[in-house]
Amino acid sequence: MADRLTQLQDTINQQAEYFCNSIGILQQFSTPSKFAGFDRSGSQTPQQQDDYAQLFATLITRCAKDIDALIESLPSDESSNDLQTACLRRLETDNQEAAERLDEVVRSGEFLLEQVLSNTGSCKFLGAWGQFWSEHLELDISC
């Protein structure tokens, strides 16, 4: 999905399109001025004109609400740097914790590999393998 600024730009472009189309509808279906000696009746009934007016009023209003919501969701200038710094610190901490867990799992895997190579076919290996998976994947595997 697009970022918020792209969404905002797309919504503003949509709003501009609604404005242009509504002006075109007004020009197309407005009642002509009366001139002496010239009588021309419009092809649209007043009900159809009202339907177009209601449709575009609804579209423009809904689009304006979407624009307001997108603007409100943008980060503010005052807290932007502080929030980004705090978020980066939190991500670095999470990354460090994940790296430590990965190191532990790799060490356990290397230990199990050594056991496999030295005890091929023994039940001892199967028990260690089951213990490894039960610790790291919360499975109940028994030999």
Automatic annotation (TrEMBL):
Gene Ontology molecular function, alphabetical: transcription coregulator activity
Domain of life: Eukaryota
SUPFAM superfamilies in the record: Mediator hinge subcomplex-like
Subcellular location: Nucleus
GO biological process: regulation of transcription by RNA polymerase II
GO cellular component: mediator complex
Xref: InterPro entries: Med7/Med21-like (IPR037212), Mediator_Med21 (IPR021384)
Keywords in alphabetical order: Activator, Nucleus, Transcription, Transcription regulation
Physiological role: Component of the Mediator complex, a coactivator involved in the regulated transcription of nearly all RNA polymerase II-dependent genes. Mediator functions as a bridge to convey information from gene-specific regulatory proteins to the basal RNA polymerase II transcription machinery. Mediator is recruited to promoters by direct interactions with regulatory proteins and serves as a scaffold for the assembly of a functional preinitiation complex with RNA polymerase II and the general transcription factors.
Protein family per UniProt: Belongs to the Mediator complex subunit 21 family.
Subunit-structure text: Component of the Mediator complex.
UniProt protein name: Mediator of RNA polymerase II transcription subunit 21
